[in-house]
Task: structure prediction
Amino acid sequence: MADESRLRRFAVLIDADNTSPRIVAGLFEEIAKFGEASVRRIYGDFSSPRLKSWADVLQKYAIDPYQQFAYTSGKNASDIALVIDAMDLLHSGRFDGFCLVSSDSDFTRLASRLREEGADVYGFGARKTPESFRQACRRFIYTENLVPEVPPASAPRQGAAAPPPAQTPDSAVAILNKAIAQMETEGGWVGLRAVGQRLANVVSDFDSRTYGFRNLSDLVRQSGAFEIDEGEGRAMRIRAKPTPAAPAGNRPPRRRRPA
Result:
């Protein structure tokens, strides 16, 4: 009988050529939310000055570097090595899932193949990552959301504009309504936690941080599109606000039937 209290085990495979070391702390904090990073491997040509910045973080986060020399220009031996290792780890039967860290669409087929075998796949990449790879993953997290916040001491000087979020809260409303429409409701009310779980199935890359909020509840409040029920001792529920009817004067005139 499986031990339900055991943390789910994940193999974390990082494409150094397409990932910044600035996201490493946030990456492993994110993985800790759903499992244990049992294997931590990174692939690249670390003899290249371009990857020198990775050397400062590998030991700190116990990441095993897998050196792949770039013998031929235009040929990515690192990608091939990562794919081979992923399949070996899959067939070992020791892992519940994989974390593929890259913005490269070449890993789309790998993600699909791992999921075909019943493994969960979490993708991590920049917003420029092609949709094919994002949709092949059970969930896709943008690495821009994992970069540490700027501390007050080094924050932009007064008067300088802070970088805006990638999306506005209003742009999340249609996605939230789509998730709610797929759920059973009580008079239109649904639990916010259940909505969050459904969102991962509706849009693999949905993340409240993309809209400028750390929590889904803050995003829902700010959108202004939902009624909120927070009774004492009860989990938060939401439902879509009714769409106001158009004023009579704005309705198009009815056409008269010919006599």
User: Anything to note?
Assistant: Strands lie at 9-15, 36-44, 64-67, 97-101, 120-125, 139-142, 190-191, 226-229, 237-240. The first strand starts at residue 9 and ends at 15.
